[in-house]
Design goal:
With about 220 residues, the chain is mainly β. About 10% of the residues lie in helices and about 65% in strands. The protein has a ten-stranded antiparallel beta barrel.
């Protein structure tokens, strides 16, 4: 069902954009901005879903405009989750950092495709308690992420961005994600948005909302 909804959105986007081809690109892509987001993740793997009682993820990201086509940016994200499973309690915290560049091809058009390459770093801490004993584990690793997508100017104030990404960190299996996000300019240079990100293999699904400030 999730993939059907995404497929429907992706099919409709070009039609809407064609009807608005007189618009100029006024979204966040290619601009200097800072964004704050908060969300939660639904885990597709039953074992993980049973283990995690609740979770919240939040972060800050931003980018700087270098020229009409090139941007440089980064992000900091955090995931906090509670563990409660068959007498095992505890928590997991994960911090992720990324830094990289983005190139978009048609900055003045209503459909603006882009590619990005980022370096990634992830650190995690797990604390569990079982039958009076406490166990702790810390881990960290680094890798990279490659993404491709496009920003569609649906109106002068509504911007929709589908995105495909490939991420490889350490010896872990690569992650292949599909995302769709939408941003609304609620007043000059202030945007409210929401999005969904699905891990294609694991079907983990992240839902989030965000606020952005363009400079």
């Amino acid at each position: 069902m999730k993939r059907f909804i995404l497929s429907t959105i992706l099919n409709v986007i070009p039609l809407v954009a064609m009807e608005n081809n007189q618009l100029s690109n006024k979204g966040l892509l290619g601009e200097t901005f800072i964004k704050a987001s908060i969300g939660t993740t639904s885990f597709g793997d039953k074992e993980t879903a049973d283990l995690i009682n609740s979770n919240i993820n939040y972060g800050i990201s931003g980018q700087i405009k270098i020229n009409n086509n090139l941007n440089f940016g980064g992000s900091v994200g955090m995931l906090n989750a509670d563990i409660d499973y068959n007498g095992i309690t505890g928590d997991i915290s994960t911090t992720s950092l990324s830094l990289g560049g983005l190139y978009h091809f048609l900055p003045n058009d209503t459909i603006d495709p882009f590619v990005s390459l980022s370096l990634a770093y992830i650190a995690s801490n797990t604390n569990t308690k079982y039958q009076g004993q406490t166990f702790s584990k810390s881990d960290s690793d680094n890798g990279y992420s490659i993404s491709a997508g496009a920003e569609f100017d649906l109106t002068n104030k509504i911007f929709l961005t589908p995105l495909l990404s490939y991420t490889k960190v350490g010896s872990n299996d690569a992650s292949k994600d599909i995302s769709v996000k939408i941003d609304f300019e609620v007043q000059k240079n202030i945007y409210l948005g929401s999005g969904i990100n699905i891990d294609i293999d694991k079907t983990d699904t992240n839902y989030y909302v965000n606020i952005s400030f363009k400079f």
